[in-house]
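Class prep. Sample record?

___
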Amino acid sequence: MRVHERLEEMGVKLPKAAAPVASYQPVVVDGHIAYVSGQLPFVDGNLVTGKLGKDVSIERGHEAARACGLMILAQLEAAGLLERVAQFVKLGGFVASVPEFTDQPKVINGASDLMYEVFGDVGKHARSAVGVPVLPLDAAVEVDAIVALKA
């Protein structure tokens, strides 16, 4: 099944790919690997801000990570690569959190679960889920990706 058909079946409409907020490219391709820059969480057009363990719940963080995953897909779509995905290789998840917060993996599951829902086994990936003191624009979560592409 084509990715676009699967998204439609799921009732998912991709957001418009976000423009870079600094000096970088959203997607860089080297051979058959696409590197997707860190994406921030926009839910209903608004950036999800704050810190997990303080003013953002695990459920809201999970939703934010899913939104980051949708933006990763939007960036791949904008680059003309969405239907060329052969394998999600790795997701890097960053969670703005207080020092006592230790559920970063549960938060980043929002992005990981999305990739599996959309791509099945092709969406299974290696991953990191790291707690950080602050992210750009006070975002609660940021996720980047490494994706293998079909020739």
About this structure: The CA atoms of residues 53 and 98 lie 6 Å apart. The two ends are 18 Å apart (CA to CA). The longest strand covers residues 85-96. DSSP finds three helices and seven strands in the chain.
